[in-house]
Amino acid sequence: MITISDLSKVYGQGEKAIVALDKVSLEVPKGEIFGVLGQSGAGKSTLIRCVNLLERPSSGSIFVNGQEMTTLGGSALRQARQHIGMIFQHFNLLSSRTIADNIAFPLEVMGYSRTACQQRVKELLALVGLEQRANAYPAQLSGGQKQRVGIARALAGQPEVLLSDEATSALDPQTTHSILELLQDLNRRMGLTILLITHEMGVVKQICHQVAILEAGKLVEQGRVGDLAARPESRLAQSLFPRPQSYAAQPGARVVTISFAGNSADEPVLSNLIRRFDLNVNILSGNIEKFGEQRVGQLQAEFVGEQFEQAVDYLRSLGLRVEVNN
């Protein structure tokens, strides 16, 4: 659905040049929610604005539904953008228009008749749960309601792709959760492909199927969220499951990191291990996180016992990832 290849964006020239994106490549499959995670200045906003050419890349290619965006201009670009919705962090609503009229605005630009426009607005208000607020003005809405209007407006032209530019970062946690649930519902019911950028791990955990991590304009990691979380060496796992900085090891102890995924996260693995291999176990850290419907956990512990190697082999035979740290 979205294929980005060797995308670069440079602002300025010579010694004053700033590289916002450095040969970024990623692919967003049709019907998936793909998150781009990174801190401020990582290049996230530049990346998503390049997809619909609000920013022109310096080099590289961007295909959306098979169409090369960087070759388009004028009316061809405007037509292509009608199939790409976008929601923003600060809503960007027209304060002098009612909610219904804000949603109707892109339809008017696209040439919808008055009757068709009214019908589509009615459908969109119902879709985002704002049927009773059609005649209200933006100043009369909460932040979450304003973002629902922004989502409805982005969906006005029935796009196949929705871009989300930090759409929940200005909202409180409870409202963020409800907006993410709405996006997840739209993805499921409409098959909508969503590319979102965020600096919040909670957003990725709640709704993303895949994630890419940007640092200083470079893509440093990407993959399915559950798979990355289950790999102790991944950046995603290391940010989710921080390890203790220091500890006093027992004599003869070996430190292991065990990653659990799926049903194994609910199994009494350690108690079985202790009984079977006569081990002394000292737990150093541990946590279980939920990614959509999948549970992933990581445990770091000291093992002391003569059957250490057999115990590690047993854990691996169960399909668990085991990293021996010393």
Describe this structure in words.
Belongs to the ABC transporter superfamily. This is Methionine import ATP-binding protein MetN. The chain has eleven helices and 14 strands. With 326 residues, the chain is α/β, with parallel strands linked by helices. The model has no long low-confidence stretch (mean pLDDT 89).
What integer is the average pLDDT? 89
CATH superfamily of the largest domain: P-loop containing nucleotide triphosphate hydrolases
Instruction: Name the poorly predicted regions.
Output: none
Arrangement of strands in the largest sheet: 6-7-8-3-9-10
- CATH architectural type of the largest domain: 3-Layer(aba) Sandwich
Residues in helix, %:
25-40%
How many domains would you count in the coordinates?
A: 2
Keywords:
Rossmann fold; elongated; 33% helix; alpha/beta; 30% strand; Alpha-Beta Plaits; 326 residues; four-stranded antiparallel sheet
Topology:
Layout: E1 2-11, E2 18-28, E3 33-37, H1 44-51, E4 59-64, E5 67-68, H2 74-81, E6 84-88, H3 99-109, H4 114-127, H5 143-154, E7 161-165, H6 173-190, E8 193-198, H7 201-207, E9 210-215, E10 218-224, H8 225-229, H9 235-240, E11 254-261, H10 269-277, E12 280-291, E13 294-304, H11 308-317, E14 321-324
Parallel strand pairs: 3-8, 3-9, 6-7, 7-8
Antiparallel strand pairs: 1-2, 1-4, 4-5, 9-10, 11-13, 11-14, 12-13
Helix pairs in contact: 3-4, 3-5, 5-6, 10-11
